[in-house]
Fold this protein.
Amino acid sequence: MSQKRVEDQEYDFLILRWWLTERRRRLNYSWEDVAEIAETTPHEVQKWAEGQGLPNRDQLFAVARHLRDPDHPPGAEPLPEASIEENEFVVVSNGLGIGKCLEVSGETATVEYFDTVAERVERNISVDDLRVVRLAHQTRCYVDREEVDRWQMGRVRRLPDGDRIIELPDQESAHIEQENLYVRWSKPVEDPIETLKQKGQETVFFRNQRTPFVRSLLKQRAASRGATGLLSSNIDFYPHQVEVVRRVLEDPVQRYLLADEVGLGKTIEAGAIIRQFLIDHNGGAVRVFAPSVICQQWTTEMDEKFDLGALEGTVEVDPLEEIEQEVQEKPPDLLVIDEAHEIAEWAFEDNRRGAFERLASWVHDAERVLLLSATPAHRHEDEFLAMLHLLDPATYSLDDRSAFRKRIQKREQVGGALRDLQVGEEAAFPLRMATDTLRDAFPNDEELQEKADHLTAELDADPVDPSARDETIRALRLHVKERYRLHHRMLRSRRSDAQENLNTQRAGVGRPDWGMDPREEEVHDLLDQWRMAALAASEDGDAENRNRYVRLFQTLMETAGCDLDLLADVVRLRLGREKPERLITDLSEKERETLRDAHAFDEEDPLLRDLLRATDQNEADADDPFVKTKEEWLASKLERTVSGEGAELWVVFATYPSVAAEVHKHLQGALGENRIALHSEGSGPEDVAKNVQRFREDPACHILVCDRSAELGRNLQFADHILHYDLPWAPNRIEQRMGRLDRIGRQGREMHTHVYLGAEVDTGSIFEAWYRILAEGLGAFQESMADLQFLVEKKINELVEQRFSSGPEHVDEQVEALQKVVEEERAELERQHQFEELEVFEQTGGSYFERLQELEEESKKVQSDVDGWIADALQFHRHREPFPDEMLQYQPNFEGQTLVPFDVIMNRFLPRSDKPVTYHRSTAVNSRADTGTAASVFRVGHPFLDGLRNYFEWDDRGRAYAIWRQSDKWEMLGQEDRLYFRFEFVLQANVSAEDVNDAGMRAALQRRADATFPPRFKTVVTERDGTPVTNDQLKKLVTERPERVQYGGTDVNVKDDRLPLLDRFVDRLDWPDYCQRARETAEEALRASDEVVRQRDDALRSAGTDSSDRIERLRLRSGGNVTNREQNAYEERIREERRIADILRRGIETPSVRLDSVGAVILSGAGIPTDYE
């Protein structure tokens, strides 16, 4: 961006001076704060505030991001120390905008606010509260000119000396006395018919640019159901994510547990919800708590994918480990807790129960809460109960542990029956079996028994009525799912359901990599000898002693599998010879304690000394080309794939920080420093984030070496290969590693997995046995085992014990047994999932996703419709340099050509974000990876577009016009010249502030209304007397896009000197009445039209069905085995849902009809007359 100083323009910056004085003080910014923002000195900033000099554009933009005021009255530039006098333009903090002082009487001034020529409002206001303003450059104004005997529209132009002139139509300009000059107040233009009544219309050019813009915004809103935060996020759309976001945003009570399996994008879902919250509330405070290791990643994702810094409000990302310290503060407007199970664990720990209760009280006071956790209820009942308690203490008490566990057990019993009870199932036997299972499981549920009887009767009918049978199945399924589900605000998607749309592919391990270091085979033999000796020593019946040996065995195997030098240090600690410093960070305190304190068995010391000797490298092997250390082997393997064109990205995992650091150092020396990046827990979060960014964006960097700190939450889906330098003896850590790459965003690229196993032993090694358990028993490298993580936690001790007991033997039978357990577990999870599955592919969910996809396929049309209004009509500059193709920034023209008041530009359109925009979603999603420049997708919800939308509700340009249309068809028909009115209405469900005061709830209900009654753009044509035109051919002649003669069309503007032409069709004095009558009959005709009545009735049925379904679900939940407290809570929710249903019904029954634009069209077979009088 140019560093040209803004003082080169023709007018000074009163608005800047106001920012730096009153606005700065109001927001509690010091001179030093502003100087830091502008990268200058406090003295320089103070000079700007005094009107001595101006910042350059970059400095101005920086200051604007912090001090601008979007609520500032449009067109007003505050004048310092000006006195209140008659005819002065003034502002006061009442939301009405610019007014004109009519008189001053003592301490009170009478201020007039101008809506239309016919509508003005007076207020008596204290003089002390008023501030004199001058009209900003390009402010839209109304001029009462006696010499032309009519009102005219104009624009303010500021001159170098501070004076102003008014630019009028047809390139006329004049000095207008202030008493004859008027500016609309801040209220939106209620009805452009008032402009046409006064014959104040402008060129049809503005209508031609504005109407496609309005239509596009409406279409975007309709497709997204008002979820503009989702639509304007820089993300690809996936059905399961879209459905989760939709459900949360259409619920007035936004307290949810997002429980998707690992890698399905819970953070993305939360980000879209956060963005929508900030849009709905025009700001607000959001706090995100996440494990410290991924706080920077959260910050990066919120910036790159959601550009939250460009919106009003604050978003803070803080370490989850510090959440206890925040309970003294007021809860934020929206609270987000990632990995929420980590704090849920406190609920039933004696030493943390008090901390959990304090935290729970704080969370309960937050109005909106999102908890994120992949923890399923199965096998983790206590943590799950605690998370639900955080969301809904009225329903889930921590004292109900026993009842909660029974509830889950019951679900497990009947999940299979629910799975078999499928709509469309024709075989009677599985339906009867499922029905009997449900009868037996819930003998005291009379309503269920009755519905089961109905289904049995339908199955006994001859012939069976498929429609009646399916309806009965549907009712029974709904009954069971709702009455016995855990919580309707827990949303969980599984990989198996979403896999079709994830487009991720695990290629598996072709074959493991064997080592070339001769030490490894001897080390393995000695470890196996140690294992057998320890096993013999543990057979004395002392269980605790055996457990200690098993833990020692695991530590020795894990460190040996990672690095022989690390193993040597572990052996030294065990022998008591040394306390290597690296082990303080590499091993846990418990591991070090076991190494130091576990009783040594007979013959252990000689075995350990032999092991220590075996780890020493034989100098004679150094020159042998067939001998390579593990690090040398790795460098050789990577060198072949990271050189030249098409080099791929590798992620190398080595558990221990010291080993990862050594591997990183060795690879730097072997392959070059610029090719390698390091992710280490020893580095600060900022350094880690920079290294990951370099790995992602620097074309020279192809390898990221990671220690265990990268296993949680890190997004590395852009990489091609994962190499396990070691295999942790905790299978869930393997899944966490795999999940860094195997997650949303791979876009169909295969993920290649490599595993290093060390020495290839003829009889099989323990390392190979463990690999087979992972690869064959659990399928860890072929498919996600995220759904198995809690089974694995339960089995881990057994799996390690097997290796301790049998070493490399009995692997085949152990793999077979494990496969059987996995199969049973997944079947159990499937039964559980029957209660919690999102109906994402049923009813509205699928069609919602499809409409979003269809909109994205029309990105070029969106660009054409939106860009014309911004760049061609309002004359914002398309700034394309230095951005890559398909990216640009819309910037105001600082020489005054942009047709928006200068103060509005300063307060609303100077970007809070310096990111370019793009109309193409794929460009935005991949922009940083492909070009190094992050771009934002340009859709409704982007602050620039929303600012424009809000501004043009105040500006009446393009909303009223009159044209003379010469038509050959009209001439052929021999028709006389005739006047018609063309009305373009916006029709939408009316969820008003009178019904719902809270902005967030009103937005949620409007989204629900939009789902059944999408906003529409409707055109009505009437005769001059208001009679609706029903002839399609005539309507087509009137509604064809206006095109002026000078651009090859047949239309001429009727304005200014040509206005007398209208008098030929309607007497001048009767014109306002004709306009009003046509306006009223047009709306009546629209409301009564067959199409609108049909759409309204369909929407009422759909909304009624949806509301009835919601109420029925609540009723079912309340009818189960619930406490009085729960019953009262459900009854209150039912009452609220009925109130909502009534609001939606009334809003659809009597929709809002807003006139967007109106035109007077004179159809003629000849050109426009030259004698206007």
Summary: Residues 1090-1118 form the longest helix (29 residues).
